[in-house]
Amino acid sequence: MNAVIHSTAPDTSAIAGRLNCIDWENVYQDLDHYGSALLPRLLTPEECAALVALYPRDDIFRSRVLMERHGFGRGEYKYFSYPLPDLVGAMRTSLYPWLAPLANRWHETMGIDIRFPQRHADFIARCHAAGQLRPTPLMLQYGAGDYNCLHQDLYGEHVFPLQAAILLSEPGRDFSGGEFVMTEQRPRMQSRPEVIPLVQGDAVVFAVHNRPVQGQRGAYRVNLRHGVSRVRSGSRHTLGVIFHDAL
Fold first, then answer.
1. What beta strand segments (E) does 108-230 contain?
2. What's this model's pTM, rounded to 2 decimal places?
């Protein structure tokens, strides 16, 4: 199983084919309205299990973070090193082109001059030229009582405004609790919460930092954060796909 995930010649056709079948107009509408959108069953149960089986390995990760030590919550996560496992790399390179047009439209609406190329490799080259060399895809592991505080994944000057999280465990079988949570802070208003229910293999695409909202006087920016509620029992694993690299 690991050979399929970490082979020298990755086959990205399965992920690309599933992405081609998604109703992207609905995804864009949800992202515009709520700052998040669901991509159902993007990974198979077998692919999820193969990724979870990678977590104990040290040779494919560049660092391990104990969340409680840094005040991030409870639980832990590991950042992958380059070269990324094939399935992780395929997810990153195949999903990015679907999101780049929306990212550019959001930046235009928010009055931000930065635009994103259509190819992920070109964007990564921009990150690396600015010294953002460390890969950011990661796997998170939670046990009973663990949680992830609301946060934003900002790692340097160059930030792609959307990211994805894929649930690798099955709610009700592997764990209970542990819902994916977002909050949105609009100017002079209380924060709006959003809970996105996920099953194994589902991906949620969401705003990293800001998104535009149309008001009576034109567009304005709202600030978003994401996290995970307390896991009540069992073990929960998630794959995080962040498109920019870190300093």
1. 138-142, 147-151, 162-167, 175-177, 180-185, 192-196, 203-207, 210-215, 218-228
2. 0.93
